[in-house]
From TrEMBL:
GO BP annotations, alphabetical order: heme biosynthetic process
Cellular compartment(s): Membrane
Main location: membrane
Gene Ontology cellular-component annotations: membrane
TM spans (from-to): 21-44, 64-86, 98-125, 131-150, 162-180, 192-212, 233-250, 262-281
GO terms for MF: metal ion binding; oxidoreductase activity
UniProt name for this protein: COX15/CtaA family protein
UniProt keyword Transmembrane, yes or no: yes
Membrane topology: Multi-pass membrane protein
Keyword check for Disulfide bond: yes
UniProt KW keywords: Cell membrane, Disulfide bond, Heme biosynthesis, Iron, Membrane, Metal-binding, Oxidoreductase, Transmembrane, Transmembrane helix
The species this protein was found in: Halorubrum laminariae
Domain of life the protein comes from: Archaea
Pathway: Porphyrin-containing compound metabolism
Length: 297
């Protein structure tokens, strides 16, 4: 008899883990933007000589809470990979989940280096470590998204339409918080909002590319391969542009007027291509279901 409750499916577990990773990403941005990453006196894993700091909203607590959330999320990520191996999932689902776990130690190491400036690793709080921390986190998030999508074993034109809608909504919402568009002050809270919405858009694009690829392989009835290829290309292009805006959202370059214009162009390209993908899917009007289980590939 299984000890797992009936309501706990792989899809729900993996989706929850992916969502927690999204929140972790934004928490990390907020922690860095408020300068809280240096609040624990350059210590890791301790915080100001304590395992648990004072539980009030202060820089120490923000950094500590970020670490705790990261620890819990890390264990959940390991659980996703373990489930794929024990549950008889297809190779690509196992590969995506396993790769997420494989690069997790790198993310933990870079995070530790980032907050140990003046400590174990002098000069750890630098642009290069911030960039590495951001890129590795994005890779883990993307791999978890793919494991969730592929592990679900289902797809349809309806899900493809939902994915493109999420992509468009996320990217457009991110524009409200983006430093390229001066709608709001690019405060720590706005930066967290930018990454929550931007990553939601990225998630929609990942799903769009995954579902469109299934359609290219002939998986959808009433959805021709040429249309699916167009949708995939538009979503992939939007994803590249969006990742560019996510990178420019951090202080990885001296943010001059030139970089702001580049950021604005990248954001516009991401929106236009995502809208193009959504419009193409809607115009196709396919209603067929995935004819073969992804898990059975």
């Amino acid at each position: 008899m299984s000890l797992r409750p009936a309501w706990l499916s792989f899809r729900r577990y993996a989706a929850t883990t992916t969502g927690m990773t999204l929140v972790l990403f934004s928490l990390g941005v907020y922690t860095a933007a408020t300068g809280s990453g240096l609040a624990c006196q350059a210590q890791w894993p301790l915080c100001s000589d304590q395992l648990i700091p004072t539980l009030t909203i202060n820089p120490d607590f923000i950094e500590w809470f970020h670490r705790v959330w990261a620890m819990v999320t890390g264990f959940l990520i390991v659980g996703v990979a373990g489930w794929t191996w024990l549950g008889g999932f297809d190779r690509r689902t196992k590969l995506a989940a396993t790769l997420a776990v494989a690069i997790l130690p790198l993310q933990i190491t870079v995070g530790a280096i980032t907050v140990t400036v003046g400590g174990l690793v002098p000069g750890g709080y630098t642009v290069s470590t911030h960039a590495a921390h951001l890129v590795v986190a994005l890779c883990i998030f993307t791999l978890l998204a793919l494991a969730t999508i592929w592990g679900d074993g289902r797809g349809s034109p309806r899900l493809l339409r939902i994915a493109t809608a999420i992509a468009v909504a996320g990217i457009v919402a991110s524009a409200v918080f983006s430093r390229a568009v001066p709608f709001v002050t690019y405060s720590p809270g706005a930066q967290a909002g930018f990454y929550i919405t931007g990553l939601a858009g990225h998630l929609g694009l990942v799903a769009t590319v995954a579902y469109a690829t299934e359609a290219v392989r002939g998986g959808y009835a009433g959805f021709d391969r040429s249309t699916a290829r167009i949708v995939r290309a538009l979503a992939a292009g939007s994803m590249v542009a969006l990742v560019g805006t996510l990178l420019l959202g951090r202080d990885l370059v001296l943010y001059t007027g030139v970089w702001q214009r580049i950021n604005l162009v990248a954001l516009a390209v991401a929106v236009v291509l995502a809208v193009g993908a959504a419009w193409t899917v809607r115009g196709a009007g396919g209603t067929g279901q995935l004819t073969a289980s992804v898990r059975g590939d």
